[in-house]
């Protein structure tokens, strides 16, 4: 029987600031826990991530700091890597798409897709706003209301109805304050769109381990039957692809297609298998927030399946929003519980990981607060003291088997949780708390050894530092394992 292979990919964070707790909870920690558990079981698990380096939100942040967009992107990539390292997010490949090699690779892949789609790419004239110094004021520089749903929007998409947008899809225009006082002129520009056959994604969407409300949204988006997907855009920052127009860039929201091809190539070189081929048995999982379902779960799979390019991700882990007092956290609005602040306050990484799982919900938005996080930090400290107290036990074997059976029963429940396609991290956390409580019933060295062994095997995926602490500091276990 062949060993099961997994390819996990976290949605690309935009390096326009550090990460907040919502980023960690939505797209990094679930994948990390999944990887750690299954690798302990002998599975092959690759975990990749990259940065959304062509998002023009970086330009907005860079202008405020009076640095170049490139400098801003590189600066925050380094910060994000350090933050994720602190929280023990074990990513095998962290891809910087601004590296020269990956720039050339990306352009080559775009050219490949352009050749494949040559008969399906059409151009349209779209009016774009420009400043007097001939700079496009688009994407995150531009505010307004969506003509389709009338919600407030910013950037290249409407979060409410899940569609990609151009200035033609906006009314009640407004501009980021850097341009508010400037005169704006409008220019007609040619933008490419990809015409693709209509694909019914009903079964694909229904098979995903996501909440019913997100499925309903995706089914509604799927029924729109859009056949023209934006392929290029006009921007002051991005992957420039048209030598005849310095402002035309590859539409950044489609860059996930390029990333998918790049990670497939990396995986193939290591394991000799393309994880996105139609006959691949590799389980591919993409994790992201629900504001991206229109793109990642509807538009891009439609492009791939409609043109028989390669397979989309088999599973989508779509997180609801993480909020403060009911309001979604946001990097661009500087409204969040920042990872850097948690690190500065010296809250342990394990406490943060456990806290996130304690509030996990597949079905609704989640409020986070620092007070509850601090309570988990106190629990972690108490747990370490309980672990050390096992060194006081002198009896080798009490002959009592009930505790052993209880511990083994919890281990079996963990296996069941991780064998489910709908992995419930709150249930995993509940079993963690249940198992931790058993430490106070350990009355012999045999039980102490079993407690540490099961804790390491089943909960090091959640709290790796505490698991390592137990292995090193419970003397009877450390002596046995040498």
From TrEMBL:
At the top level, the lineage of the source is: Bacteria
Residue ranges constituting the Methionyl/Leucyl tRNA synthetase domain according to the UniProt record = 7-375
One GO term of the cellular component aspect? cytosol
> Keyword Repeat on this protein?
no
Record-linked InterPro entries: aa-tRNA-synth_I_CS, Met-tRNA_ligase_1, Methionyl/Leucyl_tRNA_Synth, MetRS_Zn, Rossmann-like_a/b/a_fold
- Tell me one GO biological process term: methionyl-tRNA aminoacylation
Keywords, sorted A to Z? Aminoacyl-tRNA synthetase, ATP-binding, Ligase, Nucleotide-binding, Protein biosynthesis
Q: Which GO terms describe its molecular function?
A: ATP binding; methionine-tRNA ligase activity
Q: Name one Pfam family in it.
A: tRNA-synt_1g
Q: Which reaction does this chain catalyze?
A: tRNA(Met) + L-methionine + ATP = L-methionyl-tRNA(Met) + AMP + diphosphate
Q: Which family does it belong to?
A: Belongs to the class-I aminoacyl-tRNA synthetase family.
Query: What is the name attached to this protein's record?
Result: Methionyl-tRNA synthetase
The organism of origin for this protein: Photorhabdus namnaonensis
